[in-house]
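Sequence in, structure out.
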Amino acid sequence: MKKVNLLLTAAALAICSPVLAQEFDNRERMVFGLKVGTNYSNMYDSRSDDFRADSKIGFAAGAFLGIPLNKYIGLQPEFLLIQKGFKGEGSFLGSNYSFTRTTTYIDVPLQIAIKPSEFITLVAGPQFSYLVRQTDDFKTPFVNTTQEEDFKNENLRKNIFGFLVGADINIKHLVLGARVGWDVSSNHGDGTSSTPRYKNTWIMTTIGYSF
């Protein structure tokens, strides 16, 4: 009897699985979703002597739109508010300094979505970022007023261009996402500032819900 029950259960699962998969297969449907998560960021391509940087954790939140072109390929633009930055230390104007830089960006990635199955979405594409806010928190007594003013008066680039790649795991309406991104543009507009010039890089993980 036990073997019969096991066989009946296996047969029922075999019959129902395609139906359930089809029910939650949104690859050919337009979907809208919200997401929230954390961002692990740092900088690269630094152009400053005696400068070292460590990673910093921030928040990420926003919305996404899935636009199908066919069952396996689509577009996935997103609109995100995301914190980036780093912890840095170095030498400037003859003395040492250390500080934490927090930058808040509006990121708009324009991604191509490849959907090999209803559970996996691979994404990649360019990203446009706009700097909303930047704060520098100095922690060492060796930094003087002149140095702080020079950091505040940096010739910052507001519009940044970059790329990202990543993947989403789709479990019914739940979307687990991971992204790796890097800026192509440096943080300075004309490169004349004596404060560190750099480009952002980050790893973002999110959890979202699609409608």
